[in-house]
Amino acid sequence: MTGTTLVVVGLGNPGPGYAGNRHNVGQMVLDELAARMGATFKKHKTPNQVAEGRLVPGGPKLVLAKPGSFMNTSGGPVSSVLGFYSATPEDLIVVHDELDLPYDTVRLKGSGGHGGHNGLRDIIKATGTNEFTRVRIGIGRPPGRQDPADYVLRDFSPTEKKTLPNLLADGADAVEAIAELGLLAAQQRVHAPS
């Protein structure tokens, strides 16, 4: 994290038909962050919905961005919002769903591959680097032989919905910790057993 502006991207698909899908959990976390900042998402000059604000007075400015494209073409909108704010991938935090983590788990990662996640794949391609921070929101593996592509495009189950607000709050807390403490200290806080 180099600058005083951090770009926080929540991955998902556009439109109300996808809003409750597991794949859109990154955008749900951004809604929680915007509410904490008293900010509202608006159309932007880049192909994103953007909300701006600070979590604490004197803290870094957060630019919350929801790409206006589908998940697998997230790279263009992410690249354009970074350019608009003169931010680098070092100032980028991507919040996304993660099949390889159990539901209700949040993990932070500083860099790495895309792990089969098409949104991350496209961001790495568009920015030319995998050196950006990720907030991985665990959605668990699909039951039985259900296709993962079908699973991520379904809404959370009634049981999951009961604890979803806690998961979204945990994701927002993780972004706050990164903004306040930096990645390593945030990882220690978020990953420490409670």
From TrEMBL:
The organism's place on the tree of life at top rank: Bacteria
Name the UniProt record assigns to this protein: Peptidyl-tRNA hydrolase
Pfam hit, one: Pept_tRNA_hydro
Catalyzed reaction equations: an N-acyl-L-alpha-aminoacyl-tRNA + H2O = an N-acyl-L-amino acid + a tRNA + H(+)
Annotated binding of tRNA, by residue: Y18, F70, N72, N118
Site (Discriminates between blocked and unblocked aminoacyl-tRNA): N13
Enzyme Commission code(s) on record: 3.1.1.29
Family to which this protein belongs: Belongs to the PTH family.
Enzyme's top EC category: hydrolase
Keywords: Cytoplasm, Hydrolase, RNA-binding, tRNA-binding
